[in-house]
Amino acid sequence: QVQLVESGGRLVQAGGSLRLSCAASGRTISTSAMGWFRQAPGKEREFVGTINWNGQSTAYADSVKGRFTISRDNAKNTMYLQMNSLKPEDTAVYFCAVGRDSYRMYEAYEYDYWGQGTQVTVSS
Asked: What are the angstrom distances between the C-alpha of 122 and each of 35, 91, 96, 99?
């Protein structure tokens, strides 16, 4: 079993930056791909980005490409999401997840463990 805890979400003005963290416990996540998803009020959960097991390969949704960066520190069992140039439409609860395999994954069903989420609110 893996427990995931997201942190770093808060209210920020448009154009600002935030760094989210996802800390894992229970077992190492160093051999697993990981991902970030988000869910806005009244909308379905959507893919934000993914990172492979060693952090050398990432992929992002078009809506965040060039603004968000995923990284990981396997020694700390932690993944990060650096969010720059934030927009009001980025407002959502952000979830991190551990994938079933080592390589980048894009679909929610490919992830076995999920955190409880952290709220990000971007004001205009």
From this structure: 21, 5, 19, 28
- Percent of the chain surpassing pLDDT 90: 95
pLDDT tens-digit readout, 39-50: 999 999 999 999
Q: Return phi, psi of residue 109, to 5°.
A: -70, -10
What's the burial of 14, exposed, middle or buried (CB within 10 Å: 0-12/13-18/19+)?
A: middle
Residues in the chain: 124
Alpha-carbon distance 22 to 87, whole Å?
22
On whether the CB atoms of residues 61 and 49 are closer than 8 A, the answer is yes
Cα–Cα dist 53/74, whole Å: 9
One-letter identity of residue 90: D
> What token pair was written down for 17?
């930056």
